[in-house]
Amino acid sequence: MLLAIEQGNTNTMFAIHDGQEWIAQWRSATESTRTADEYVVWLSQLLSMQGLGFRAIDACIISSVVPQSIFNLRNLARRYFNVEPLVIGENAKLGVDVRIDKPSEAGADRLVNAVGAHMVYPGPLIVIDSGTATTFDIVGADGGFEGGIIAPGINLSMQALHEAAAKLPRIAIQRPSGGRIVGTDTVSAMQSGVFWGYISLIEGLVARIKAERAEPLTVVATGGVASLFEGATPCIDHFDPDLTIRGLLEIHRRNTHLESQ
Fold first, then answer.
1. Which of 15, 39, 137, 253 has a Cα-to-Cα distance from 4 of 20 to 30 A?
2. Is the pLDDT of residue 29 over 70?
3. Tally of CB atoms within 10 A around 131
4. Does 62 share its domain with 129?
C-alpha cells in the first residue's frame, strides 16, 4: 500500500492507497519541528483504526512546502515503514517539463497539482489553489508547468486584518448573507471585503492571464477554501478537491513504471 503525504504550510494530509482506491485520509496541523517518532505515535493509532499495521505500507511519496520538515518525514518512511520515499523536488520524476527560469524554485504542491489537473482536464489550464497562499498556475496542453502567480491566501489576509487593526475582530470566513456587497456592521463589512475581494482577485487575474496568453484556458480550482467560492463566479470552470492526491498517485505510478523498465 502507498502512503501519500502532502504537507502544506497549514495542514498535512496522510492518505493510504491500496492499489485500487484511497481507503483512508487524515489531516493534522503542520508543525515543522514534529519528529518522526511523534508522527508515528499519531499515525499508528489511525492505522490501527483501519485495521492496518506498519507492514501494510510498502511505498511512500512526499510533497512538502516546508523544507525543515522533509528530514523528519523521510525518517518516518525509512525507520517505521522500511521504505525509501519518493520526494517531490528531490528523487521523484514528474514526467512533465517545468518551463520556468528557475525550476528548482517551483513549489512541490504546484507541480503535483499540475500533474493531477492534466490527467483529467484538457489543457491548457489555469489551476487556482486556495490555501495559505492563493496560487494561479499555468499548465500547458502537454502538461508542462509554465509558471504562475502567488498571492496571499484568504485566511492569511483575514488574520493580518485582525492582528493589525485593534478594533477588528477575528471572524469566520464565509459568503456574506444575502449576497450583499455593502456590509451594515463590522463583521459583515469584513466578510464582504475578504470574500468579494478574493472573488475580484480571481476574476481579475484570470482575465489578465487569458488576455496575456491569447488562448482558450480551462480554469480549475482546488485547495482548502476553494469550495467557498463555488457558484460565486462564472470564471471557474471546475472545482476539484482531489487534484493534489491524484497528482501524487500518478507521480508514484510513473516512477514505479520507470523502476520496472
1. 137
2. yes
3. 22
4. no
Q: What is the DSSP letter of 30?
A: -
Q: Residues 219, 132: one domain? A: yes
pLDDT at 258 over 80: no
What is the pTM assigned to this prediction?
0.89
* Residues annotated as part of the active site: 109
Q: What is the CATH number of the domain that holds 67?
A: 3.30.420.40
**Residues 134, 223: one domain?**
yes
Both 62 and 186 in one domain: the answer is: no
What is residue 96's three-state secondary structure? coil
Find the Cα–Cα–Cα–Cα dihedral 75, 106, 228, 251, rounded to 10°. -60
- pLDDT, position 259: 59
Residue 261 has pLDDT above 50, yes or no: no
C-alpha–C-alpha distance, residues 169 and 228, integer Å: 21
Domain count, the chain: 2
Looking at the DSSP bridge assignments, the partners of residue 98 are 145
